[in-house]
Give the backbone structure.
Amino acid sequence: MKKIPSSLKNMILSLCLIGIFSAFIIGSVHQITEKPIAEAKNRAEADAIYKIIGMKADNNPFADKLKVKLKNSKSKLTVYPLKKDGLIKAFAIKSNSNKGFGGKLEILVGITIDGYILGYEVLKSQETPGLGSKVSEEKFKSQFVGLRPKEELKVKQDGGEIDAVTAATISSRAVTEAVQKAYDGYKKLSHRR
């Protein structure tokens, strides 16, 4: 086999061919993995919904999902209504906060039709392992269960009733903000009915 001469033109051509081949491979891998990743994400959300609500619904919450836009917000919350015997019994509301120590925090909050918080599950978090990740532990999460807030939810350091996780006040504030957003979404929905 004849050796290809080393010239600028040949090097650029080689790099372009390698780039095109690499882009093709990456694109193919993305197409192959896109659907399984989306299915796994939906499965994780469904598991979180049923864990928070504590009941199997008669309906498919994903098929019946709604979007709610909050006042002074560009984004919309996703609301999954859960029905039993044809009536909505609870909502699972996907909420978030950009104020976490590690950045964006995404949670799913369960709220009964009567406005009581059933709990929350963290879906996505970049909080510090060992400290900020403690907002996923029952000791912190249990403070929200059974609440029917009349005022804005806040951590005690900000004049509220939620005990922040020691050394993770920022993460605690982010979760509290996300739960409050979900509750605001619930209130907007309940005024529509």
Summary: The CA atoms of residues 24 and 30 lie 10 Å apart.
